């Protein structure tokens, strides 16, 4: 009877905590939205700067003429006197997002102007980004850490400067897409679900549509996958989290006109394909090891290594030939500027003339990141403790690659979804 009362009390506490978390997240969203409205209060509802005004003009054309004319629009007033093919030279995510919001509102008989929708798109997506940060951090460290991360992102000055009302630029929706893609990757890694893997590829596609910074995703995730393989943390969940992202994500990315075949031809994407090959080799090794004896396994490994070296040398030769034929060795100006801060000033003066492309001064870090600058050391330590790619915790026992170990050394089956032991609830059964 006492055990039943304790279970009921625990259930009630969890329900109250979930309701409280929901209202806190709602308040964080309101805070993120309202804190970015001071520009409207002070300067009225206007579009700021040059790039946002160009994006606003493109959105106006989209809502007036439709998406087909948008893809085929040649704008003779941009890049005068050469003109510009808009559909093939812009990242359409921002324009399509604002255009869709305007269409939905007008379908509901809410007659807002295109300019008003464009002005408030960034503040709205800042709330979405805060909620995505909560989901990401909760998946890694828990609900309390998620709420803290969400409120910090809502107030950090560097993000406010890129999402203030009237700042209708690509980052308005791209930061949300970036965070949400990482959340779905971690969610897939923890659950091993193909459903979340598919959503992850779609979120990556939305990020590709929104901003050229999608290359950071397609390089950071392969780095994490390679680190897991090197440290002996390969699992079927890791394969499910990565392989569909590369295949489906690359196919979807190539559908964006401004990206096209760059999704497979530029050096920024080669790391993802290399790790894609590596993870399949590792999966093959694990499969062969499971069906062969130890002696036959050594022979098979020798054969696979020999054939693999020949194939790798041939692939590397082709890649080197392709890269060597490019003046920039297959790297875009964005990546070369990241690797060499002096690249733009030497070769692309018009890019170097923009203030945001200049190397930042040390005070700017503290002005833009604010209190987060002092929390960086603690945050780095928290990211690695406990060191595990599956962050499910059941009571005092921590999950570490689908195996629990108690303090006395006795193993238990993992309760996380996607586990090879298929224990789908949070009760720990004997292994």
Automatic annotation (TrEMBL):
Taxonomic source organism: Melia azedarach
Protein name, per record: Dolichyl-diphosphooligosaccharide--protein glycosyltransferase subunit STT3A
